[in-house]
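Quick one, T. Sequence first:
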Amino acid sequence: MPAGWKHTPSGWISGNCPMCSKRGHNPDKRGRGGIRFEDDHFQYNCFNCGFKTGWSDGRRIGGKLQELLTTFGTDPADIQRVNLELLREQEAGDIAGQYIEKPKEQKVQIDWPTVQLPPNSYQIGEYPTKELDKKQLDKLALACAYIMKRGLDFCEDWHWSPHMHFANRVILPFYYKRKIVGYTARWVPEHRPDAMPKYYNQMPKNFVYNLDKQDKHNTVIVTEGQFDAIQVGGVALAGNTPNSIQCKIIEDLDKQIVLLPDFDKSGIDTVNVAVKNGWAVSFPEWEDDIKDASDAVIKYGRLFTVKTVLESIETNATKIKILAKARCR
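Structure tokens:
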């Protein structure tokens, strides 16, 4: 290991990642690289540039690991010699073929059909108000006030419709590849009849919100709800127990994944999914009355909220579980 790398109580060896500069990122000066050794495998991960690699018993030294080792200063001839020795061991044990690196899993093929928004839906800022009566105008104004109260951005494609119960809701279309594949309609007035759901959702199976806006990010922040995802520029699961296909869709983005759970009892379930999939989890030091990203943005503003999320990332599974028990209650 390079000089300056240190052992942590959680079993990792951490230091400045040498791959950051090679991958076009700012040099790591905060020790965001880490390697963890087990009996028959090890893994390397950087939370600055997202570089991942590792090795396990029965495999050769793959291309990404070779790149890391040579950057650390390993002689390429030594890597080749070890790979040849691994090959001989495989053949001697009559397990030929296992030395080949596992093929990369195929990405989930997304085929979400387009849908129509509720009748007479328009973008809130472009609604033909001359067609509305006073009662409808009041409800449109209430929808606008709700967006402002929640600290949400009017640049998002918010819609409104006077049709039936949608007049009391603000509508957020779901886009994938610039086509509308669903929507959520959030109830706005303070009083809501018992039989009326807070959210009326129309979405395809295995849907993940906001995939189109992840191209510019090295880290994907995963939230439970769409409104929270808007606030931090992340993706949303539309619930606290995503299925394996939703998780794979997020992993197919090939970026560093960080879960930002809701800090209530249901957040424990989402954290358990993150731990199972090897995702990081963020536990920002927000005040106790703040339960999600939307609450944080109202109190702290968007830039500070995102900053605290990225500065509070935890990767150790044991620490994640301990923090989750303390925060998600």
